[in-house]
Amino acid sequence: MKKEVWFQSREQELEALEALKLDDKKRFTVKPVPYAINDDVPEETRVAMEEEWVKTVQDDPWLEEALHILADMANSGSEPNLVHDQKQ
Question: Is residue 19 part of a domain?
């Protein structure tokens, strides 16, 4: 019963979060990488899992911020300093 209560609470929190969103524009595109299909999993289940994964990744603020950081690094025009000073 605790699991059901948790899921209900989670759904309520997600609905409240959705209500706070001012815009629903997609900031970046997410596409799953094709791979060997597991025939043990029904097609409907695979599609549902893929759609949920895309939605989860697309709404991840940490991933979005990481993409912004990588874009800034790529557009900075300078090479990152990956060599650490080994002097002791």
Answer: no
Has residue 85 been placed in a domain?
no
Distance CA 45, CA 28 (A): 25
Instruction: Look at residue 55 and tell me whether its pLDDT is greater than 80.
Output: yes
Within a domain: residue 34?
yes
* Alpha-helical regions (H) of the chain: 2-20, 43-58, 61-75
CB 46 within 8 A of CB 37: yes
**The two three-digit tokens of residue 41, written as one number:** 């999993």
Domain count of the chain? Answer: 1
Asked whether the whole model's pTM tops 0.85, one would answer no
Per the structure, the complete domain to which residue 66 belongs is given by 25-76
Residue 84 CA to residue 16 CA, distance in Å, equals 46
